[in-house]
Amino acid sequence: MSDNQEFPRKWSEEQLKRRRQRNLALAWVLGGVVVLFFVITITKLGGNVADRPVYGAVNAPTLVGSVELIKPIG
Amino acid sequence: MSDSSITTGNLIGGRTMSEIGMAAPADYFELLKPRVMSLVIFTGLVGLVVAPGTINPIIAFVGLLCVAVGAGASGALNMWYDADIDLKMKRTANRPVPAGRITAREAFGFGITLSVGSVLVMGLAVNWVAAGLLAFTIFFYVVIYTMWLKRLTPQNIVIGGAAGAFPPMIGWAAVTGSISIESISLFLIIFMWTPPHFWALSLFSRDDYAAAGVPMLPVVAGERVTRNQIMLYTILLMPISFLPNVLGFAGLIYAGVTTVLGLAFLGFAFRVWRDREGELKTAKQLFAYSILYLFLLFSTLLVEQGLGLVPALNAMVRL
User: Fold this and answer.
1) A40–chain B nearest CA distance, Å
2) Which of A38, B114, B170, B238 has a 20 to 30 Å separation from B20 between CA atoms?
């Protein structure tokens, strides 16, 4: 029996309704996964998001060769 | 899986063309065995809370989510492989695969996807020790228990019970990144609890298992041997349930609660042991009580730790 025989030629109203429900559930799950990965990423980055060097700021690091120096304030 | 109509994912269980495509999201949720999953999440949470060290609450949540999804994936793969015997048992005949709402192939794809996903996310977000344990748990439940032991030996649930005992170790590993004697003690409690729990169920589901050809102990060795084994494993469980006290991560409340709960467990098991063949009421009571027992035992660990009533393992480790 081939796979194609599993699918009726014409979907009934009830089958279409169930398919919509499955599609909706899958959309919610995928949306949830996107949010989950975003939250994991932010959590993993943690304080480093706020602590990152901001070039051009008063105490911005100056690159000298491969060594990063912090300018004293004032 | 012996039934070829199931392995090919074609029409089974009286499924007709009109039933194809009728799977609702709830059917997929049922594949995850949500009731089993809830106990797995809970024991995983306890492992996570009592472990020494700290973990970001969001990462802890992700860890538990991975444990839940991994357990659900195991359930889906179990239903995929066991669809032929599920069809023969009253208790399981209405599961999505034997009832024909979901094809075996769909259940397999669903289970594999969730298994790989849960292990990868656990590894990337939490740590690879916890991910490795989760992968091993899924492998153990699906391959060692479902595919190999379940149809081979009446000791199936004794060895296979290890799969259900791993979640607290995974929770512990999520925090510490390691396996320790303390987390193994939590494993041992569930491991020794499983035989009386499942054999009580198999006593009153004996006809179902016999019809399906599953060599559960009451089917192969008879009720008397099963009742003896239930009593034996219950007695063995008693000293093991105090291991958290011996190892210093449980306090007096846990010791007291475990004593009372353990005596009650012994009482229920004794009544099962004393009963004559065919008397199944006490087996049903033991089965129900065993779930309550495990839940209360682990709840006590959780509450004690939450209220700070036990010497923190952190301090002990620092010493």
Assistant:
1) 7
2) B114
